[in-house]
């Protein structure tokens, strides 16, 4: 049986908002707000894993990075600016069109493909880093999804997953507050039943040979109206998993 991680309802949901990816006050505002933290986490873990110098302009030069479920390219662009050879994939064709247009406007060379990770050509060279940010909670067959992502890694590669924990707190803050009260995301963006506990994600990645791991949580400070890292992984969390 051919693997298909696409969820039709999820794809239609994101297709309806594809034209708003680069609107910093639009439906994807929360992603814009946490992107500096996403980039800080990715860069720190990649620098350490590959023993890179972090004080140079193009510190990721020479690395091949795959952004799975890239949307409009919010992570692809800053990764490309750091010198990485970036490929962004997304099964929503409209997302890829937006991503290509914006990268062209910014003068950035990024490879964008409208496909799911399981549909990448078999002869695609392996990647040093695979990023799956805010995507695993939107796919079908998450275990198979992780396996296919890991299979795209080079022997000494690493993977970044950012997602939401499956707790009562994540339901209250990640869905009720974020989607219905604060309108940080369109209603129906998340399904709490598809959230994944960090310890479960850690075990799944370790079973795929990605045992060198670090995890950190994320929290919103309402009085400062900003996000910061935290030791608590009750709601949002970032996980790095590398091959030793």
Structure characterization notes:
With 244 residues, this protein is of the alpha/beta class. The chain has one domain: Vaccinia Virus protein VP39 (Rossmann fold, 3-Layer(aba) Sandwich). Helices cover 34% and strands 22% of the residues. It contains seven helices and eight strands; from the N terminus they run ααβαβαββαβααβββ. The protein has helices at residues 8-15, 29-50, 76-81, 93-106, 142-151, 168-181, 198-206, and strands at residues 64-68, 85-89, 111-113, 127-133, 153-164, 212-221, 226-230, 236-242. Strands 3-2-1-4-5-8-6-7 form an eight-stranded mixed beta sheet, sandwiched between helices. Strand 2, helix 4 and strand 3 form a beta-alpha-beta unit. The model has no long low-confidence stretch (mean pLDDT 93).
Write the layout of secondary structure elements.
Layout: H1 8-15, H2 29-50, E1 64-68, H3 76-81, E2 85-89, H4 93-106, E3 111-113, E4 127-133, H5 142-151, E5 153-164, H6 168-181, H7 198-206, E6 212-221, E7 226-230, E8 236-242
Parallel strand pairs: 1-2, 1-4, 2-3, 4-5
Antiparallel strand pairs: 5-8, 6-7, 6-8
């Amino acid at each position: 049986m051919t693997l298909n991680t696409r969820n039709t309802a999820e794809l239609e949901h994101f297709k309806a908002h594809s034209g708003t990816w680069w609107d910093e006050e639009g439906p994807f505002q929360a992603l814009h707000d946490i992107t500096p933290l996403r980039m800080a986490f990715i860069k720190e873990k990649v620098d350490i894993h590959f023993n890179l110098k972090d004080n140079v302009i193009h510190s990721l030069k020479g690395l091949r990075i795959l952004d799975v479920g890239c949307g409009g390219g919010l992570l692809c662009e800053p990764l490309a600016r750091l010198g990485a050879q970036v490929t962004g994939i997304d099964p929503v064709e409209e997302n890829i069109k937006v991503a290509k247009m914006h990268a062209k406007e910014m003068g950035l060379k990024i490879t964008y493909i409208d496909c799911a990770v399981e549909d990448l050509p078999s002869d695609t060279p392996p990647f040093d880093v695979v990023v799956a940010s805010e995507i695993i909670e939107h796919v079908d067959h998450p275990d198979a999804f992780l396996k296919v992502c890991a299979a795209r890694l080079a022997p000494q590669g690493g993977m970044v997953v950012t997602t939401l924990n499956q707790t009562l707190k994540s339901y209250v803050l990640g869905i009720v507050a974020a989607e219905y009260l604060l309108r940080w995301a369109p209603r129906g963006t998340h399904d709490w039943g598809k959230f994944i506990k960090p310890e479960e994600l850690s075990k799944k990645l370790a079973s795929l040979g990605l045992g060198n791991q670090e995890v950190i949580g994320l929290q919103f400070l309402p009085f400062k109206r900003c996000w910061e890292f935290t030791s608590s992984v009750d709601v949002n969390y970032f996980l790095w998993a590398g091959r030793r």
